[in-house]
Amino acid sequence: PDFRDIMSKRSQIIGLKGNDENEVREFKIVLTRDVGLPETVFRPVQAEDEILIVTEYAAFPLRLISTLEEMSKAYQRENSFPNTFLHLDRLEQFSDMIPPEAHLIESLEDILYPCLALNLVQQDPNNHQYQFNYYDSLRDEYFTESLSPEWTQILETLASREGIRSALVDLLEAEKENLHEHPEQWDTQYLPQIRRFIKQVDEMTDKDPNYPYRAAVVGSPPNENNSFGKEGVLRRFIQQMERLVGLARAEKPTLSSGNSDGNGQESSARSKPETVEGELEA
Q1: Residue 112's pLDDT band (boundaries 50, 70, 90)?
Q2: How far, CA to CA in Å, does 207 sit from each of 147, 204, 216, 220, 221?
Q3: What one-character-per-residue DSSP string does 228-275 give?
Q4: CA-CA distance, 51 to 151, in Å (whole number)?
C-alpha cells in the first residue's frame, strides 16, 4: 500500500515481430501516436504470432531476501538495548519484512489476547503503548516492558523475543493457579473482566489499527464466505478456564461435606460426649 507508482520505478517493454512489415509498422504507429508510448519500449521477438507486453515495477529487489533474515537479527539485537540509537522516534514501530510462520502467530495469539482480556497487559493512555510488569528472578527485580499499540507488532515481538514471551506465559499461568485456588473468583472477577474486553473489541471502529484482528480475538458468525464462522481465541480461553474451574470446584470440599463422611459417623461422634456426660451426672 505504500508503493508510489511513478515513472522512475516502472519499466515497460512491448515485444513484437522484429521485421518491417506493414502490419508491424501500423501497430507501432498506433502505440506511439495514439497511445503515447515512446519508441524505446519496443523489443524484437522471434514469435510470429505473439505480442508480449511486460511492465516491471522496481518495488523491492528479490535478491536481498536471502540476507534479510541476518539483517533482521542484527536490527533486533541492537534494538533490544535500552540506549540504542536506531530511531529518532522510539515510539515508532515497524513490522517485520519477513513475518513469523502462521502456526507460530496462532500460538502467540493464545497467549497475548487472554493477557489483554485479563488486563495483565494494559494500555498507557498517554502514548497508547501496551505495558506489563514482570519479575526478573535473576536480578530479583520487577521491570516494566513497553509494547507497540498494534497487536500484530506485539505478536512479532513475542515471536522474536523469548524473554517477553516467557514473562507473559508466567503471568497467565499465575492467574490459572489463582483460579485453581479460588474458583469462586471466576464468576465475580475473571469472567466479567473478559466480557468487558470483548465489548471493547466489538465497539472498535475501522480507524483502530487493531480493527482487522477482531475476528481472531472474538470470532465471527457464519457468512457467505465461511459457512461455519470463526471461533475466536477468547471463546477457547473461556472454555479452557471453565474446565479448570470445574475441576477446582470438584476437588474443593464444601462445608457440609467436610462435617460428615456420608455415613453419619462424625455426627454420632459429636453426640457421644453428651451421652457420657449424662451418665456421669446420673
Answers
A1: very high
A2: 20, 8, 18, 19, 22
A3: T-B--HHHHHHHHHHHHHHHHHHHSPPHHHHT--SSSHHHHHHHHHHH
A4: 47
Identify the bridge partners of residue 55 per DSSP, sorted by sequence position: 12
Give, as one character, the DSSP assignment of residue 161.
Answer: -
Give the H/E segment covering residue 14. strand 10-17
Q: What is the pLDDT of residues 91-106, one digit of tens each?
A: 566 666 677 888 899 9
Q: Are 147 and 131 in contact (CB under 8 A)?
A: yes
> Using only C-alpha atoms, what is the Rg of the chain?
33
User: Distance of CA 80 to CAs 159, 160, 163, 215, Å?
Assistant: 14, 11, 11, 31
Strands 10-17 and 141-147: unpaired
Per-residue confidence (pLDDT) for residue 272, from 0 to 100 = 41
3-state SS, residue 142:
strand
Whole-number pLDDT of residue 228: 61
Nearest to 142 by CA among 151, 133, 132: 133
Cell numbers found for residue 95: 513490522
Tell me, what amino acid is at 63?
R
How much of the chain is in helix, strand and coil states, percent to nearest 5?
Answer: 55, 15, 35
Q: What's the rounded Cα separation, in Å, for the pair 101 and 266?
A: 61
